[in-house]
Design brief:
2 copies of one chain form a homodimer.
Chain A: H1 9-21, H2 27-38, H3 44-56, E1 60-64, E2 77-81, H4 83-100
Antiparallel strand pairs in A: 1-2
Helix pairs in contact in A: 1-2, 1-4
Chain A binds a DNA duplex through helix 1 and helix 3.
Chain lengths: ~110, ~110
DNA sequence: TTCAGTTGGTATACGATGTATATGAAATGC
DNA sequence: GCATTTCATATACATCGTATACCAACTGAA
């Protein structure tokens, strides 16, 4: 990995949410996924801003879906990982895991 | 966790390095620990800047050690986690682990 | 048939975080 | 003493994270 393109913490979170959601990833579900797994109640604007930045870096791509026959069911913007995004995510997960490995929680603080 | 005090990605990395290094954590070794585990060649200035911010948030504390009898062996500034820092780190590791759990790498990209 | 109510997205601004560059200070060894 | 080595600090700027506010599209019922 060339230096300088490490993922930010929130970018990593959003990419992980995409990975879990598969073909049902759009603003609202992404936010829910993060909240459900981490307990962190993120702002929806933060999610979209980050998705835009990820797309600008070619780590994600998006398409507009069809409206659904539900009250307020307007068309969604679906997001997915690109191959490059999947690679960056794997790399970044590997990095954090190797930092976590072997920690002795008992001796901290 | 009260909203707003989530750790940044690099802050988390630095705290993890502290956790591994125990009583031998100072600028140079912290940098080495991160590089050795992640392959990421971080800038020393970035490390100190982050340590200062962590200390401002009471997640770490520091003290100045004794000079050593080595060429260039000037006094080091040692860093360690506070109890609060250890808690924040555990919390943040738990969050990322629950985001990683159950991922199916094969279906990405 | 229009408008309240609901879902979902966009714009933008700003503070926090991440990073590079440059400089400073204290020690040793010759 | 002065070059050399280790370690720390200062500063400036780019990127990321977050809040606030607003806009758009659709349904259902008056």
């Amino acid at each position: 990995m060339p230096k300088g393109d490490a993922l930010g913490g929130f970018e990593q979170l959003v990419l992980l949410a995409l990975a879990h959601l598969g073909d049902n990833a759009y603003g609202v579900t992404i936010r829910q996924e993060i909240a459900a797994r981490t307990g962190r109640d993120v702002n929806i604007g933060a999610v979209y801003a980050t998705l835009d930045r990820l797309e600008a870096k070619s780590l994600t791509r998006s398409r507009t879906g069809e409206p659904t026959a539900l009250r307020g069911g307007r068309a969604k913007r679906y997001f997915e990982l690109t191959a490059e995004g999947a690679r960056a995510l794997e790399e970044s997960v590997r990095a954090i895991e190797s930092m976590i490995r072997g920690l002795n929680w008992g001796e901290l603080g």
